[in-house]
Amino acid sequence: MSAAGAHVQGDLFDPAAAVRDERESVLTPAEKFEQFHADNPAVYATLCRLAREWVDRTGRRKIGIGALTERCRWEIALATNDPEFKINNNHRAFYARLIMRDEPDLADLFELRKSMADEWDQPTSKAA
């Protein structure tokens, strides 16, 4: 195949992308979540709105974070029409714990499995 017909990946020769990829590869899952969360506040707001809508409409007090995440992806994709927007599945455990910790009315909404997010979400102990 000639060079003109070759498919070249867009980021392959982008030095900024290489630096970005290198920096992201050294971040812990918690740090990646924190960065995503800070950069995308609409995700948290949408997840909380959807969770409350679920409880209000169904009367049920349990739902999976996966179901909310998929619906959140759908709504944000339709609202922004941004083909690059993605929510990493690794963030779901962090969002579930964050929502349950910070939203008292949603405190028992999710059944939690053991996760690397458990250590991230540990409250700091206060000295007596």
Folded structure, characterized:
By secondary structure, this protein is mostly helical. It is built from 6 helices and no strands. The chain has helices at residues 15-25, 29-39, 41-58, 65-80, 92-102, 117-120. α3 (41-58) packs across α4. The longest helix has 18 residues, at 41-58. The chain is globular, with a radius of gyration of 19 Å. Mean pLDDT is 82; it is low at 1-12 and 123-128.
What's the topology here?
Blueprint: H1 15-25, H2 29-39, H3 41-58, H4 65-80, H5 92-102, H6 117-120
In short:
With 128 residues, this protein is mainly alpha-helical.
Helix content: 55-70%
Instruction: Give the DSSP E fraction (strand runs of 2 or more residues).
Output: under 5%
DSSP strand tally: 0
| Ends distance | 72 Å
Average the pLDDT over all residues and give the rounded result: 82
Characteristic terms for this protein:
disordered N terminus, 128 residues, mainly alpha, disordered C terminus, globular, single chain
